[in-house]
Prior knowledge:
The protein is α/β, with parallel strands linked by helices. Helix content is 31%, strand content 20%.
Amino acid sequence: MKEVVNNGIVSGLLKDVRIPAMFHAEQMFPRKKIDPQDIPDAVRKQLSQPQFCGRIRPGMQIAVTAGSRGIRNVDIITRAIVDFVYSCGAVPFIVPSMGSHGGASAEGQKEILAGYGITEETMGCEIRSCMDTVQVGTTAHGKPVYMDRNAWDSDGVIVSCRIKPHNAFRGRVESGPCKMMTVGLGKQKGASFVHKDGMNHIAENIPEMAQVVIDSGKILFAIPCIENAYDETMLLEAILPEQIIPREEELLKIAFANMPRLIVGESDVLIVDEIGKNYSGTGTDPNITGTFSTPYASGGLKVQRTCFLNLSEASHGNGLGVGLASTITNKIFRALDPEKMYPNCITSTVLTSAMIPFVAANDLDAIRLCIRTCNGIDEENVRIVRIANSLHIGRIMLSEAYYADVLAGKYPGLKALDEPSEPIFDEEGNLISAI
């Protein structure tokens, strides 16, 4: 496939589309948080309770999970768990727990962890990465449940993860300890069985399969975190195995209540500066952007066109989620690595996320294309929302069409920081006005 070229025919068709002036705005949400320097003490406080530390005995080989999501302070949290295990006289090691991510390879999964600062040197313990699994058991409906072989061969597993609304389904539990035990620790083989019935059944499969893992007796406890609307750690709580499913259900409600959102609610065009697996499993969190890959979840911004401009280095070529955009740029297209993307789709059975949308030569054309192809709008007063990524939306940019309403207080929690000004692009058509 030939690339669309800068200043070619497509650029010519779009050259008269005006991109409106934009202004910076601050979104304000509740901000309960645990400062990074206080996280080790918070972990120790949780794990020092007798019901948890009593499960760790000297000499035990203990597996600590670490996933592929961009969890804030994940290196600090993981190191604090490792240090606590050492303090009990046991031997911790880290198990990459991310299903088929990292190209469904042992080295690829270690590479992802290294991008989050989780290495043997920084953690002070071994990282045992493999894709081999052991069948833990079978559900009442005949579904096999698998676990990473290194974790299974350990004397116990500590499940470290984040609780957050999922990007493709709704259920009692979504992204959290149950998913980590079944999808993350299940590696590619286990994850494929979780997803095999489709996203319309995964909400039933995950807790049922998680119960099989819990019943195996291999899980010592879970210690999930929850983040606030600013992508900061706000809660850490240790949970005994028999309480994981009901407690995760309760904590998910807290996670939902602390999710950020784009306060304007509706827009014509959404610009996302950078997508990536470190922001969401589908590049951007659809709970923010409204770009869902299945009909089994909904929410986020109501928007007609969406353009993605860049792919994060932390994604290592896995641009899953590009298929949810109206357009991407040549920059993203060139960075895509199908060997990293496609294993996720094969495992999840959701193909939409990897489909290639309209590819524009540069940022300028991508934005112009979105404006030009919107239906039923006034192009002179087009409503545009621009975000850096879906994790950090405390500071955003809005087109001038919103300005008077923001000043008038139409959107509580939204404050204009400056006056609208023309966006700046470099000679290559890259957007260089900073958010």
